[in-house]
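Standup notes
- HV: blocked on the assembly model, inputs below
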Amino acid sequence: MWAGARDMLPMLLGAAPLGAIFGTLAAPSGLSHGGALAMSLVVFAGSSQFIAITLLGGGAGLAVIVLTTLVVNLRHALYSATLLPHVAGLGQRWRIPLAFWLTDETFAVALHRYQAQDGSPYKHWYYLGACLAMYANWFTWTLAGLLLGRSLPRLEHLGLEFAMAATFTGIVVPMLRSRPMLGAAVGAAAVALAGRGLPYKLGLMAAALTGVAIGLVLEGRKGTP
Amino acid sequence: MTRNELILIAAMAAVTFPVRYSFYALGGRLAFPPLARRALRYVPVAVLTAIVAPMVLLPDGAHWQLSWRNAWLLGALASGLIAWWFNHLLASIAGGLAVFFLFRLIVN
């Protein structure tokens, strides 16, 4: 479990400025301190929390915010499906919290652990450690943003988010050793770049689906799985 | 916290958790058909690349930076090369971070 938390460190650095900015922007949008903390604790979804306070500040209604949250988080269903084979053997007592804490970051790190060739039966503890670290970190930085607000050093200019990019790169690149995988990556990148202007992470969703489709097509052409 | 905020947060949670739990809920009862199993193998590569590519190529979110002056691009290339050769995640992250921060220190 400790190893999972430790391996989340780059993600924690990357999420810190985002949590702090969320805390800082919550009050001007009209969300109370309690509301902002509750959102980080109960919803625990960075992108949709940002969109929620933006919409709140713009005077959007409940239905719009909730629907947007749903769309923004659709990619988590892909993560849920991808990790299912690894968590299927666990009881509900494990699967419910592990699902609650499923984010881009915990998905990447947990999947990397599950793909390692060793047959350790304790990988769910690692996954749990990664989740708890991410959760505590998100709450802490939300609180820091709320309390310190604009007096916080300008974390977003430190480039801490690069730690997340480096981790994702380090996880993806070794997987690119076959032509379908490479095609999936190139296709996903192209669609993500072309669709980066689309709202609600729809570009990301389209990119993911395109990448998967290209991988399948290239795999089929080769004739062997 | 006002009543409206409580409702908002509860509603957001009510659409966030079920999506994350969607497949986990099935546990061992669902065996993916072979096509779905094959498709899912591409999800990590596709999603993570789709997240990273815009971060690295348009670090400010608006302008393409395909140049050696782009610390994000150089750092990610370093991470990628180390990952490719050594297949060691920690080394890849550390190397990328080193290149990224050193370069920003020198160039900026």
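- HV (later): unblocked. Residues 44-107 of chain B form one domain. The mean pLDDT of chain B is 92.
- Next: hand off to the docking folks.
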